[in-house]
Amino acid sequence: METLFNKNKKEESITSEQFSSYYSLYYPIKLIIDWLCRNDIRKLKNRELCFTIENDRYIRYQSFDSLNQLKKRIQKLIPIKIDIGAIYNISPRYYNDHKQTSDLIFQEKELIFDIDISDYNDVRTCCTDSDICSKCWKFIICGAKILERILREDFGFQKFFFEFSGRRGIHCWVCDKKACKLNDKERKMIESYIYYDRIIINEKSTKEKLNIKKRKFVEPIYPSFLEDISIIKNDFYEILKEQDLLNYENIKKLLKEIVKMYFCLIDMEPIDNILNKKKMNSIDKLQNINKHLKAVEKILRNTNNNILYHSESCINEFIMNILSPRLDWSVTRQTAHLLKGPFCIHPKTGFVSVPMSLQLLEKFDFNKIPKIDNLLKKNENDIKYFNEYKDFFDNFVKNINNE
To answer: What is the pTM of this model?
Structure first.
C-alpha cells in the first residue's frame, strides 16, 4: 500500500534560497492578484495578506497598493507561506492606527471549506493521524463530490475550485459574489447544513460516547439526500471492501446505533451475530444486515403501518455518516480566518498547493504533484504538471472575471 505521507517520514528542509527562486521563477503572482481583485485592483489595498516567515513567525494585516509593491515585499521577506484573509473597510496595514476607534469591518471574502484526512480517523483503517495513502484519499474525493453537489444544487453557487492543501487534504474556495458577501452567521448556517444538520451521529472529541442527534423520521430525510447517496454509493462499497470497515468495533457500534434509531426496540442479537462473524467480509455483512432489516421492516409495517421503519434509509444514513465531508468549522464560519492560498509551498512536504476542478481531483495522482525541489531542478514532468494546474486556474480566473 502506497503511503504518501507518514509520521516516520523525514520532513522537508526547504531553504530561503529555494523559496526565493520559486517566487521568482514559478509563483503566478499576477494570476493570484487577478483572482483576488476581480478586475478591481483597488480591492488589493483593503485585502489582508499574512506572511509566515522563518521560525513560524506571522506577519498579519499586510495589504498593498499595487502588484509591484507586493512583489517587493515577498522578495524581501521570502515567506514560507502566504495566507489570504478578507477585504475590509480600511487597509489592514493601518489597523494598528485605527483599532482604538474603528476596528476592521468585514466587506467580503470567499466562502471556504477545509477537508482534512485526519478528521476521518474514526472511519479509516489504512492510516492514522496525518498519514495518508491512495486508499484513504477516496474519503476526500467522496467529501468533495457531495460538497460540489450541495454548493451547486442546494445553494446555487457556480464559481468555485478545489485546492490540494499540500499534505493531508483539500480546500474549496467559493468565489460567487453572493458567497463572498456572507457574514459569519450565514456561513455557520451553510456549514451546519452541509455536515452537522445532515448527519445523525458523530463522534465526540473524547470518542467515548456517540453524539446522537434527534431526527424527525420523514422520508426522504432531505430532498437532496438520495442524490448524495447516488453520487457516492459505488465509492462507498469500494471503500467498505478496501477498509473492511465492519470488522472494526467502532464502525460496528456506529451501524448499530443507526439501526436502533430507525427500528427502536428491534432485537439486536441477529445484527450482532452477523457483525461478529470473523470470516465474513464487510460487504457480505452489510448485505446480510440489509436483508434482515428488510424482513423486519415488512413485519413491522404490516403491524402498525409506521414509516419509522425503513431499511433503505437506515443503510443510507450509515453511508452518509461514513463519507459526508468533514469540515473544519473555523475555516468556513469565521471571516477573520486566514488560509494558505493556491500555489504556495507546503513547508513540511515541499509540495505545491495546486488548484483543480472536481474532475481533476478525481484523477489526482500523488506521483504527479509538483514539488519545489523538482521544479528548481527543471524536472520536465513537474514543470508539466505545474503548468497544467496553472492553466486550469488561469481559465477559472478568466471565467469569473468575465462574469
So the answer is: 0.92
